[in-house]
């Protein structure tokens, strides 16, 4: 009995009685405690606002709203967005799975399910909540040092955490690659890990800001406060990229290399760094595609990284010397037609050429 008292608390959301009975039986067989069950998304949300749980099991049939809307409603709440939501549904459609991933689910169980399947998916979702447990304890320790006025010690603790900041982007990239291979479970885990890391770093930057303010260093305070804001903005951008990538996969399920399409969309939306990263991922799939190198060159030029832009453009032309658009762009950048010259000489030519990056906006 003591084991059950310490078990993770579950909230179940489904409007179908037979599904509720199945899920209740599955919960009773695991080391889980059912906190409450609802047939309405809004009722469940109201309950959760004052009675948070450890995990939510959500059917696609929840009466007053679709399950993706319910998921997004939870994600807008600062407290509830931390709770993993596992979809338990009979929807076996690929686009339904993609929609759930875009909304931020932490697992996807298809009905009818086995005991082992239920245990595995719920267990994975619960483990995600402790993925950054060590770092969270480190932040807690750093905050205690901050409260004690030991600002230098606190700064040291916070800086250890932010040293791994690129990991969030890496997990998002990994998630997109898993989506392309239709390994949806692994994609879900990767995206959720990225979210956890990003939130951790934002908190660490805020802590650093407070530590520098405590030391009387207002420049440091403002610098790290901006980094915290930038980290939250990066999270929003990465979520937008994930949703855009999923939209592309839904529109063309047979696309060989949707990362190139993603790069084009991001460049047109003004996210040039995101476009460059998408094109780089596209080249991992199609390393000999001159069109991707051409698109990459345009993104680099718009970022005013002209050497990298020329390198990508020259690579496109070396792959296909008859690539008319690339030849035209090369002529506008260098002021002479493509002849297959060596790269070093080309970079020197670009350095001496007229200012022309504005014209690339039309390409």
TrEMBL record:
The UniProt entry annotates TPR repeats at 168-201, 256-289
Cross-referenced Gene3D superfamilies, in alphabetical order? 3.40.50.2300, Tetratricopeptide repeat domain
Alphabetized, the UniProt keywords read: Phosphoprotein, Repeat, TPR repeat
Q: Which residues form the Response regulatory domain?
A: 9-126
Q: Which domain of life is it from?
A: Bacteria
Sequence positions bearing 4-aspartylphosphate = 59
- Output the GO biological process annotations, alphabetical, semicolon-separated: phosphorelay signal transduction system
Quote the protein name from its UniProt record: Response regulatory domain-containing protein
Protein source organism? Desulfovibrio subterraneus
